[in-house]
Design brief:
The chain contains 13 helices and eight strands. It is α+β, with helices and mostly antiparallel strands. It is globular and about 50 Å long.
């Protein structure tokens, strides 16, 4: 089925998408805000052998504590659009919701304490750290590394992870992906992701004004979507508490596979981000960069890596860590030197 995965629903599931998030793109569609690139942090390459991403939890964590400024700004813009709420309700009815729900869980494997208990524990721990109820987790057979979230009205939200993503990532990295998806739920992104996909896909089916409405909103919606992804990368870092884990996920999704995983280098990937930033800093480069990213649902992976590297060294992140509560008797992550 041709589809697009969403945080609040799943209209389709695009076979060419390789992004981790609640909405998948038809190819490597990422964008990024323009931010001055700072110094690159050097990371020790280590390999996790026992998992607990963190020995702390954020008892009173609010979504705005880690929400990206561009997410805040573009959310306000969306809320100011007249009639957006009503239009979304018209386009998404109860029957459509049921179709989406059954399509996504009918061919997947429900994870629980008795089924893939290790994955279940990763989700429970990530939800505990972010101070949010754990959604259901499903594993779906697919050769395309991806994960997405559904939040159907009146039903418990759930996250779907593709088998190829499980094979590609380490346990720590996979937990960071789960935390990214939890970030969408924590920030109530589901509503806006629903509208974005309904309007950019479904609105074109409305006679007359439908296409005009969708075209006029599409650019603004994609601008918000890219900002929302930056927010959820921060949620991933709050759980992993190691920027190299989050950056490694982005690196692997950009050009990794199981047979190459042990040869990938986070520092080199950040240097690549610096090269892109430098190449796009000229007037011509700036124009090409904006043309390249304007219609993308996700920021470019190298720029997402740069963003999370910078936030990991920011005062805001440091303050959040100081607010965290230590967990007594939590399992520690043991590491050995990477290959």
């Amino acid at each position: 089925m041709a589809s697009v995965s969403l945080s609040s629903l799943c209209l389709t599931q695009n076979p060419n998408s390789i992004s981790f998030s609640s909405i998948a793109s038809d190819h490597l569609r990422f964008g990024s805000p323009t931010v001055e690139f700072g110094s690159v942090k050097k990371y020790r390459r280590e390999r996790a052998v026992v998992c607990r991403a963190s020995s702390v939890v954020f008892r009173n964590l609010d979504a705005d504590d880690f929400r990206h400024p561009l997410d805040k700004q573009n959310t306000l813009i969306l809320r100011a659009i007249p009639g957006l709420n009503e239009l979304g309700k018209i386009l998404l009815g109860s029957v459509a919701e049921q179709v989406m729900l059954l399509e996504n869980i009918g061919t997947s494997l429900l994870v629980s304490k008795d089924q893939l208990s290790g994955l279940h524990q990763l989700m429970v721990e990530a939800a505990e750290i972010l101070n949010i109820d754990a959604p259901d987790l499903y594993v779906r057979q697919s050769p395309v590394p991806n994960a997405y979230t559904l939040a159907i009205s009146g039903k418990k939200p759930f996250v779907v992870v593709h088998t190829s993503l499980v094979e590609l990532l380490t346990r720590e990295e996979l937990q960071a992906v789960l935390a990214h998806e939890l970030g969408h739920l924590k920030c109530d992104h589901g509503v806006w992701l629903t509208f974005a996909n309904i309007l950019t896909l479904g609105a074109y089916t409305i006679p007359g004004l439908g296409g005009m409405i969708a075209q006029s909103l599409e650019e603004q919606l994609f601008r918000w979507l890219r900002a929302a992804e930056l927010t959820c990368d921060r949620a991933a870092l709050l759980v992993a508490q190691d920027p190299k884990v989050v950056i490694s996920v982005l690196m692997k999704l950009a050009g990794g596979c199981p047979s190459l995983a042990d040869q990938l280098n986070v520092d080199a990937f950040l240097e690549q981000a610096r090269s892109y930033d430098k190449a796009s800093s000229s007037p011509v480069g700036w124009y090409i960069r904006n043309a390249q990213t304007r219609q993308l649902s996700h920021p470019l992976p190298v720029l997402r890596a740069r963003e999370i590297d910078e936030w990991s060294r920011s005062q805001d992140y440091t303050i959040l860590l100081k607010r965290a509560t230590q967990i007594t008797g939590a399992k520690k992550v043991l590491t050995t030197p990477g290959r």
